[in-house]
Amino acid sequence: MSAAPAIAAVDWGTSHLRIWLLDAKGAVLAEKRSDEGLMALQRSEFPVVLDRHLRSMGVADTLPAIVCGMAGSRQGWIEAPYLTAPAALTDVLDRAVIATGSVREVRIVPGIAQRLPEAPDVIRGEETQLAGLGDLIGKGRHLVCMPGTHCKWVEVEDGTIARFGTWMTGELFSVLSTQSILRHAVAAVDAGVTLDNRYFRDWLIQALSAPADMTAQLFQIRASALLFEMSPKDASAALSGLLVGTEIASAAAKFGRGRSEIILVASGRLQSLYAEGLKAAGHTPKSVDADRAVCAGLFEAARRHWPLQHGVPA
User: Fold this and answer.
1) Residue 192 has pLDDT above 90, yes or no
2) How far apart are CA 246 and CA 202, in angstroms?
3) CB-based contacts of 198: which residues, under 8 Å, 6+ apart?
């Protein structure tokens, strides 16, 4: 490494672990990823796994770590209690809790709970990505789309999370393609859906036009494979388009159809698919890379707990 790391930034999700070493200005020096997410670990294993990975990255045991995501859940390393929405993003970062058991100092950023009987919801990890958007959501009212296994749509007002909703789009794709009757149509096909597959857009438009018909449209994928020899690759694209389109139509109804610009926090294939879906629905997506956002949010959280402007001695 050409510069000394000042902090280890960690995004610990349900199925994956991502670690970045950041310098005193927040630049990424190195990164590491693994499948050791929440579901793969016992509570006692979290500090062991983190210390093992950081030692393999060549950093000293004195380097502190800032963590977001499911490591702070009730089933994780240590519970970082939810703040209640509306919640200012600066307050969320300030409330990072100390996690014990590691050789190093570790703090975990809490999630946010929406304690409304008519719309109960929670987020963990996305609040840190939002904090990484900085001035982009610092003033005014903004709508943010955050695709993933559990897709989040968040309304932010002057740097405060006002309300949000969760759509299980990614998990539904997994369950439907592997455990439902649709597995016979999309069996053994990786969900590598790309924009050059016309079935994605065709079924996306169909969902945007009639989102209430989704359960009937789902079976039509099975029927198309039987009657019109739709290939497994095309069936996968159709399923993706149908689910993404239904999510976008539902979120637009919940947060207001009049919104034009929507901030899209995503990376890779999800970014391109959701950008296409938002444009097809009449929105203007403003894309931000999800990895950059979470790194920036974790760095901002770390700055509030350690003197990173001077670096952290190894």
Assistant:
1) no
2) 13
3) none
